[in-house]
Write a structure and sequence with these properties.
The protein is of the alpha/beta class and 299 residues long. It is built from 11 helices and 10 strands. It has a domain of 166 residues: 3-Layer(aba) Sandwich (Rossmann fold). Helix 4 packs across helix 5, helix 5 packs antiparallel against helix 6 and helix 9 crosses helix 10. The structure holds adenosine-5'-triphosphate. One of its GO terms (molecular function) is ATP hydrolysis activity.
């Protein structure tokens, strides 16, 4: 092997998932936002969870539950002051760059630029994520095709509907061929048809690539239909974890007054309160921007 081949092989093994490793492991994860001089309340309070390789895992909970803070720690965007997070066996505190190379992340905040075309937006991400120059055009076209935006690829993104913007953001995250796709409320504010089209894209990509998906949502029906396993989160803690069927079975056992529980009943049972539902409308680019403005405080 030449020294260049050695270096390339070393870099590849450096970012390769450890054999048999789970996609994400969090143990005792805590995070507090400082308020004034003192420490604020814990946004994340001792979270233990495992996302298995190849599954769609949903972190489900109401606004303020701590979902975004948890995934920002997993994606290395927040430090882990207490506890441990591993992504494919790599400790996020010590191997930040290796972890980042394995991830695609779609934040709640708008990440598409309205003054660029869809193709230009995805090409920008391909450059940022160091997709080799010779492969870039093909990989951008592939990512756009995966989210059904080939025809609209050369239109300004500012003319896209809300659902198309979300699918474009998926393409931006997919262009680097990540092993773990992390999506923060990917369907918030969309109508049911647009929500379904976003989920169909996620499903199709997962089937084609075997990639692991970690998604936050507060839509029970989506979690029930599309997630293999769910972590119910409330007030910084995971209140219950399992497949939708397992969680419902536990409620049936523990609360016989619910012989046929929905996930809403499951949440109420484990968290002791209702999960508020979000607003739904298809909207346009500026609606998406407005909907996600609440999340900008996290940035
Ligand atoms: N930058 C910040 N500064 C101070 N407090 C914050 C900040 N970001 C989040 N928080 C607080 O941390 C807690 C958890 O917020 P987080 O955004 O993780 O919840 P969430 O479940 O993702 O809800 P949402 O869907 O509304 O973002 C909330 O009480 C929130 O107000």
């Amino acid at each position: 092997m030449t020294s260049t081949e050695n270096a390339t092989a070393a870099a590849a093994s450096d970012t390769a998932p450890a054999p048999g490793a789970d996609a994400v492991v969090c143990r005792g994860l805590e995070y507090s936002f400082h308020r004034g001089r003192g420490k604020g309340a814990k946004a994340v309070d001792g979270v233990d969870l495992t996302v298995r390789t190849g599954e769609v895992f949903g972190l489900l909970g109401p606004n303020g539950a701590g979902k975004t803070t948890t995934i920002r720690a997993i994606t290395t965007l927040l430090p882990v002051p207490s506890g441990m997070v591993r992504v494919f066996g790599h400790d996020t505190a010590r191997r930040q760059m290796q972890v980042r190379r394995l991830l695609g992340y779609v934040p709640q905040q708008l990440s598409a630029e309205s003054g660029l075309t869809g193709r230009e937006n995805v090409a920008l991400f391909a450059r940022v994520f160091d997709v080799p120059h010779a492969e870039r055009a093909a990989r951008v076209a592939q990512a756009l095709a995966a989210v059904d935006l080939t025809e609209a690829a050369d239109r300004m993104c500012g003319t896209y509907s809300g659902g198309m913007v979300r699918r474009l953001e998926l393409a931006q995250a997919l262009v680097s061929a990540p092993r773990l796709l992390v999506l923060d409320e990917p369907t918030i504010g969309l109508d049911p048809i647009a929500r379904t089209s976003v989920w169909e894209c996620i499903e199709a990509v997962r089937r084609a690539t075997g990639m692991t998906v970690l998604v936050t949502t507060h839509y029970m029906d989506e979690a029930d239909q599309y997630c293999d396993r769910i972590g119910l989160m409330d007030r910084g803690k995971i209140r219950a974890l399992g497949t939708p069927a397992e969680l419902k079975a536990r409620v049936r056992e523990q609360a016989p007054e619910h012989p046929d529980p929905t996930l809403d009943d499951v949440f109420r049972h484990f968290a002791g309160r209702d999960l508020a539902r979000g607003q739904a409308s298809e909207g346009d680019f500026s609606d998406v921007r407005r909907t996600r403005r609440t999340a900008s405080r996290v940035g």
